[in-house]
Structure formats: C-alpha cells, structure tokens
Amino acid sequence: DSAEASRSVVFENTQRCNPKCLRILLENITGLNIDVDFTVELIPEINVAVVTFIKNIDTKEFVEKCSQNKRVREFNMTARLLESTQSIKAENLPESISSDYLTVYFESARNGGGPVADVQLFPEENSAIITFCDHKGNS
C-alpha cells in the first residue's frame, strides 16, 4: 500500500455504458458533481474511462463501492486505482518540436511537471515519450 493513493480510477469494459450514462452513474455512486469534484476522460479505443478526483476522497473505498454497485456489475465494468508511472506519451506534436522544448515544458511547475530524465521523439508519429525522474511529475 502506498502512503498516497492514486487520485485516478480506471474503469474497464465501458462499451455497454454510454458516456452520459457513465457520468450520471459516477455522480450517483459518489454523491459528487462532475467537472467540479471529478473529471472523466474516455478512451473509447480500448473501452476505458479514467476518473480523476479533484475533491479529496478515499479512492480505495470508491473502488470497493464500485465493485459492489449493482449497475456497475450489470454493465460488466471493473474499477481499479490508476497505477503510477514515470513516463507519459505526448501526441499530436508540431513537426518542429525539439526534445529541449519538451523537457523545459514538462519540467515547468505551472504545467504540473517535474524533473525530466529523458525525452524520446517519434517524428513519424508526431509524438514523444517523456520519462520523469519520479512519478509525481506527470499529473
């Protein structure tokens, strides 16, 4: 158990629950308001949604509530804490982007960054993998 639980929860198998229904379901389970207390990022290509809590809640308890929720089970969805990572993928980058620019950008505290260990550019995909020195610099 990490001392600091993730503020984000991953919902898998979301294909049977449309986005609006998922948002309402999450409001019902949490008693919180979307966009004020939490956000939902849909990743339809892999039938996943990531819920990130703005309001401080016990996310482990929330995951437990979801596993017991009748509607979540009816949709065959599962919920788990989003694990920490030290790398992120940046996509849709301008062709002229440099690894130096990305390093400075992602090290900026204003952008929620932290010390960057490495930047790998993939110009053919207009993307890059940014690896931080620790997992706290990738929010």
TrEMBL record:
Coiled coil regions in record: none
Top-level division of the source organism's lineage: Eukaryota
Organism of derivation: Agelaius phoeniceus (Red-winged blackbird)
InterPro entries reported for this sequence: Nucleotide-bd_a/b_plait_sf (IPR012677), RRM_PARP14_2 (IPR057050)
Domain PARP14 second RRM: 5-83
Gene designation per UniProt: Parp14_1
Protein name from the UniProt record: PAR14 polymerase
One Pfam family this sequence matches: RRM_PARP14_2
